Amino acid sequence: MLSEALRLIRVYHDLKQAELAKELGISVSYLSEIERGKKTASLEIIENYSRIFKISASSILFFSENMNTEFSSSQKALKARGVIANKVLNFLALIETKTELGNAQKK
Predict the structure, then answer these.
(1) Residue of 1, 32, 76, 89 with fewest CB within 10 Å of its CB?
(2) pLDDT score, position 85
(3) CATH number for the domain harbouring residue 71
(4) What residues have CB less than 8 Å from 46, skipping those under 6 apart?
């Protein structure tokens, strides 16, 4: 889920993979693999996202936390975090869709 959160953060800020890869100091193909979940984002990359997008690293990691039961003291808390994370991701996906439609209309 972290990979999807990172992708949606980039899309929300209307950056192309090439632009963000340059900011992060990594290749476009490596960024693509991170966003597709083929590679795991290092702590350094997450910290760079935090700096670039002015989002705390802990907020970014929140999206992956709901998948990890060891962070939860109860199943209810885990389920609640998962529901909240999914709602946030769905909201960001909606924004992505609206942005793409707006960009298509401009052309």
Answers:
(1) 76
(2) 76
(3) 1.10.260.40
(4) 57, 60, 61
57 within 8 A of 6, measured Cβ to Cβ:
no
Q: How confident is the model at residue 20 (pLDDT cuts 50, 70, 90)?
A: very high
CA distance 84 to 93: 14
Structural domains counted in the chain: 1
Task: Find the domain containing 33 and state its range.
Answer: 2-106
Contact (Cβ atoms closer than 8 angstroms) between residue 56 and residue 10:
no
60-85 residues labelled b (16+ CB within 10 A) or e (exposed): bbbbbbbeeeeebeeeeebeebeeeb
Helix, strand and coil content of the chain, in percent to the nearest 5, comes to: 75, 0, 25
